[in-house]
Amino acid sequence: MDPDIEAACHELLLRLAGRMPDQLLWRYRDWLGEGAMPTLARTLPRTLLKHNIDLDQPEYRLLVAGLVPHGADWHQVSSTLGVDEVGENRYTFTGSAPDRVNSVDPVSALVHATLRGRPDVGEVRESWRHGDGEPKRVLLITALTGLPRLTGELQRVLRVLGDEEPSVEVMPQRFDLPAYHLAALASSELICTGSVDAGHRLAAA
Amino acid sequence: MAEVHDGIATDGFAVPLRLHNLLLALAGRLDDTALSEARELTARARLDEAAELTTGALIAGRLPVRESEQHELGLVLELSRSDATLADHLTVDDAEADNGVLHRFTGENHPEEGIADALDRTLQVLPDLRSVHAVWRNTPAGSVPGPLPQRVVLVEIGPDGNPPAAAYRIDAALRRAGIRVVVEVTGPGAERAHYHDQARTAATAVWLAGSTGTSQSSSSIADEQPGRHVAWEGAPARETPEPVEASTGPGHVFGPRDFASVPELERVEQTMDLTSADVAQLRAALAEDPERGKAIAAATIGPEEVVEIPELDLDDPQLSERDRQLLRELHAELAERERAEAEKVRLSGAGRADDQARWVDGFSGA
């Protein structure tokens, strides 16, 4: 797959965090991780329209770059470009789940065991999202390569551990953080670091 | 915006039922989340999204489908105004799809726990439910499986029930109660895959309607006492589960599929009525009039004959709990016969022109 196309799709799906229902977002990220571009191209634009998710200009450019080459319907793609400002982040975040302070957290332990010292991975942090229903774990990771694949892998691990709609945000080195990710990082805790040095820190310690 | 086609397709089968039957055939191959979401989307008339989710998950997971399933998915995509060319990206491998994943099920550790309570209202409202069984599945399904064990709820419905609606409503009620399940709804005419037969063999009964509603392939189920909340009435609801397919390793087990050669309709017909022996046994258990029970059971009850049955007096102190249960069963059975006869008369009168009003198997999968 063309790395630019893959990167464009990945960044677009990152930017949709908190705006597209988790139920759909993790699935699209899984499909991207598996390289199912024609499937994404034929379904994602329509999903954006059906769920009233407007894209700003940079996001629209990502959609065009990522999915039009794979057969996305041009009329649908065109309709996703919104005119108004993208809505503010509607969630709040905390560094730890209120009821898990003193209990064993197998998810963090497994993520630590898997990603500590891993090549091309920087910081691995977690935050807990509040806003609808139970607090939800959000993993925040920096990585240099293979971002969609790493996202897919971690999502599958989290699902087996009981998180049906995992939120795994694997961010590239240079990424203009949306409000959602800024808020999550501001209230996050470090799980571990990969082999990439502290030069790629996500948040000030 | 134009509505999607959700009525009868060109060959007489409704698109929601086509999708439902496809999802039944894909149970155990597709992840349980996709199955449940697609069923909800189907029930909520969002057929295009259901078809796209199903097809997309199959493509991304490189999950094998039969050629006939690819054709069916392409048709459903087209009928729901999605992009039918998506089906071209499916991994078609009949042998792998047929001989593919075998699962391990167990009825131990109370798979029925909490289900009867959570479904109490649902069971009263949904039409023509026949039975509810529960079982744990110990093997992952699809390319993005959820946590194990996975609880599977098997529901049988009669011809007046609607499979997608029942699947969605039962799933929703259980999730509201915090019970994570995947719900498989089968009805007369639906092809039940090997997956369902295996699950059913190990399953524990949760609830049975008045008629026995059991299949011959499930010996442990056939011995169960019918009635509401079967699994909660003290006595073990099932016997020792039959041995499940031996495993050769963790996760998926590959082996030949053994599809039942007996047509489903034939099995369903046999579940509609108790046999004469069953009725005789029931009657014999009723202390109030055993002789009359035997007489009724021995007779061949014709369509026009009316059988006078004792009043349903469940408060009679002379009756044991088992008697009461058998009495309930008998009444339900006779009511079912009356209903079936009335239906037969109605159909005869209408020249069977309204067959399409009932749900039919839109996809043989063969």
Question: Could you describe the 3D structure shown?
Answer:
- The complex is a heterodimer of chains A (205) and B (366).
- Chain A is 43% helix and 15% strand.
- By secondary structure, chain A is an alpha+beta fold.
- Chain A folds into 2 domains: 3-79, no CATH class; 92-200, 2-Layer Sandwich (Beta Polymerase, domain 2).
- In chain A, strands 1, 2, 3, 4 and 5 form a 5-stranded mixed sheet that branches.
- In chain A, helix 1 (3-15) crosses helix 4.
- Chain A is globular, with a radius of gyration of 17 Å.
- The model of chain A has no long low-confidence stretch (mean pLDDT 92).
- By secondary structure, chain B is an alpha/beta fold.
- Chain B has 3 domains: 15-99, no CATH class; 105-264, no CATH class; 273-351.
- Helices cover 41% and strands 10% of the residues of chain B.
- Chain B has helices spanning 15-26, 32-43, 47-60, 67-79, 94-99, 115-118, 120-125, 163-176, 194-202, 219-222, 264-272, 276-285, 290-298, 321-349; strands at 64-65, 91-92, 101-102, 105-106, 129-137, 150-157, 181-186, 204-208, 253-254.
- In chain B, strands 4, 5, 6, 7 and 8 form a 5-stranded mixed sheet that branches. A two-stranded parallel sheet of chain B has the order 1-2. Chain B has a two-stranded antiparallel ribbon with strand order 3-9.
- The two termini of chain B are 36 Å apart.
- In chain B, 45% of the residues are buried.
- The interface between A and B is medium-sized, with 21 and 27 residues.
